[in-house]
């Protein structure tokens, strides 16, 4: 049976390095049923939630997380932290009853213009995911540094070291995803 993989990109730009990284990872994952959900959500606001409940697009995101066999989360590093879009998505989903992240295999990656490749954002993201009891895959770590030089015109990574790390991470995600369904 083909696993269902969900992709979440913490950058809202269509041509972001993180979206290219996500696409590369899905390609290296191999055969799967894949869906990417946009994190372009309204800012979390308790008054909005009290008045209107959970927004439809947040419920759609939570349902996609719940039905996925595995999840790939990628995100840029903004000012030594994770992006507001990604944190906002996590905050909204945490308000949906049912613990949709619980035991879900999650692969985390980042791409950034700087030398660290977004490591600080990844550490922060892992920290934010911990209370959800997701099954975070700890290695290999994929943090693409100097991202502008690492992708070709078609959006593919050209560095074998990164490709090897992504293949290893996706192999672990595949193993855990197939085991979970």
Describe this structure in words.
By secondary structure, this protein is α/β, with parallel strands linked by helices. The protein has a single domain (4-180), classed as Rossmann fold (3-Layer(aba) Sandwich). The protein has 6 helices and 8 strands. It has helices at residues 17-29, 46-52, 56-67, 84-94, 119-129, 160-180, and strands at residues 4-9, 33-37, 70-74, 77-78, 81-82, 105-111, 135-136, 142-144. The strands form 2 sheets. Strands 1, 2, 3, 6, 7 and 8 form a 6-stranded parallel β-sheet that branches. A two-stranded antiparallel sheet has the order 4-5. Strand 4 and strand 5 (81-82) form a beta hairpin. The longest helix is centred in the C-terminal third of the chain and has 21 residues, at 160-180. It is globular. The N and C termini lie close together (9 Å). The model has no long low-confidence stretch (mean pLDDT 96).
Report helical residue fraction. 40-55%
Largest sheet: 6 strands, parallel
What separation lies between the terminal Cα atoms?
9 Å
Shape assignment: globular
Quantity of strands, as a count: 8
Average pLDDT taken over every residue: 96
The CATH homologous superfamily is termed: Flavodoxin domain
Strand percentage lies at: 15-25%
| Uncertain spans | none
Report the CATH architecture.
Answer: 3-Layer(aba) Sandwich
